[in-house]
Amino acid sequence: MKTAMERVGIVGAGMTGATVASLLRSECAESKLVVLDKGRGVGGRMSTSRSVKANSFPVDLGAQYISITETYKEKHRRFHEELISAGILTPLRSEIEGNRSRDPSVSHHVAPQGVSSIVKHFLNQSEAELHTCEQVTQVNVTGNTVEVVSEGGNTYQCGSLVLTMPVPQILQLKGTIADIIDSKPDVKKKLEMVSYSSRFAVGLFYNPGTKIGYTWGGKYIPEDSCIRFVAIENIKRNLNNPKLGPSVVVHTNVPFGMEHLEQDKNVMVPTILQHLRDVLPELPEPDEIKGHKWRFSQVHKAYEDSPGCVVLNENPLILLAGDAFSHSTMDGCIQSAISTKEALLKVHSTKSNI
Fold it and tell me: Would 118 be classed as within a structural domain?
């Protein structure tokens, strides 16, 4: 079905938002799509960070590799094959030490250009109007229109709106959306029950010629009180370019992240690096360090029954989507996006028949 739809606003340029935009473009070729994100770049928790000083490989500060389970191999085959044929996903060939998941039915992939390339692929397909550095703080309903207001005071008018940011950020929104949520106590209660794990990530960048001293692509570290996972990015992604130096990413475990959640990321970096030196003493000193705090890392408890998306308001349509309404994997985000597209098209079809 190729149709046109009123302007659709999508808040969040992560995996779910990008896939929603791509799916809507394929169904509604003439529709106007606008995507807003508070970050400087796209990707959300599938973000890739580059060095400012060192000439090295970029690091994935969020998602590390993509695991495709038996459940989704057939269900999302089209998406997987598209990403693989485009070279955006390739098989994970490096060793991941300490990986407890030995299920032979699960296939693991990496993104050679960084996991943000997956999100960029779908955003590019969508040809959506993209606005970064736009943190949405207010959502108002006026007649048949949704008005989205950013922290900087910019206003966007939409016929329909999809919110894909973490649920606590949805609950913090000002404007009439707060009244709509209050008017639906059952939905509000389920939203308030959604919870996330938190963790810190640190990217280490090295100049060309630096020897790392380890040969694995990733390593789980269960015995440390701080560090959970370390990846050598160039080995993990099976990349070899002598003009670029190696890079390493470190993820803390969830208890450490929760304990120090309100600490500034830069305050925590020295502590994390000290733990890193203890567990990987051969690791050289980096030429550049970049810290990041994931307040909303992975969904710990999803929205009840994981519906894929939730219709918050019907006219104008406001949908809540994202991994909180499915689960925290690439395929969970794709599933949420499919549910969102179907809900949008269903409402649009109903309007067209009135």
Answer: no
